[in-house]
Amino acid sequence: MDLPKKIPVFPLSNFIIFPRTAVPLNIFEPRYIDMINDSMKTNKLIGMIQPKNTDKKLSELHNIGCLGKITSFKEIDDKRFLIEIKGLIRFKIEKEIINDKKYREYEVNFENYLDDLDNKEENIKFSDLELIFKDLKSLFEKRGFVINWKALEKQSLDETINALAMASPFTLEEKQVLLEAENLNIRKTKITEILATYTFDQFNNTTLQ
């Protein structure tokens, strides 16, 4: 696919999208209504990225985000859009573009993340992930999250790991670490490391629950 050199960026706090995952979004702020309108007229691509803080109007952003494609679009009567975004490839921010639009645009670089677009077979097997899945299931259940594990296991391995990373009850900082992990093997290791801290925490706080 042709990757754009500049993209509109949606700095959405409390939200991360990973490559090969799809999420619904409810768009109602006027500036992001403008952004989606403009995107629908061109390549339907927008960048999703986490702000580092939410208390400033022009908050500083993380360096790494994920380019998403609008795959579904519905206009609601009261000036809202319901869209679905599919994560395609991560990007690194190069610099902000000065514009006269209500939303922000950036020059971005995809060169470190071209493998996100590759459908090659990964050398991680589901059997390698059984313990991770077991621990994740336990964490999800403790937090009241419901996951259709059978449906997940029918997906490709990277889709499954990314979907679990995105939907997990990890902190946003932990999810950002997972997003920035260079490849699937490293992401798997990071999930294991994060899970280890949760397991340790649960064993040491039994009196508080």
What is the H level of CATH, i.e. the homologous superfamily of the largest domain?
A: LON domain-like
Instruction: Report the end-to-end length measured between terminal Cα atoms.
Output: 50 Å
Which class best fits the helix and strand makeup? alpha+beta
Sheet with most strands: 5 strands, mixed, barrel
> Reading side by side through the largest sheet, how are the strands ordered?
1-3-4-5-6
The number of strands is: 6
The CATH class of the largest domain, by name, is Mainly Beta
Counting H and I runs of at least 4 residues, what is the number of helices?
Answer: 6
What percent of residues adopt helix (DSSP H or I)?
Answer: 25-40%
How many domains would you count in the coordinates? 2
Rg: 18 Å
Name the overall outline.
globular
What is the helix/strand order? EEHEEEEHHHHH
Classify the fold: give the CATH topology of the largest domain.
Archaeosine Trna-guanine Transglycosylase, Chain: A, domain 4
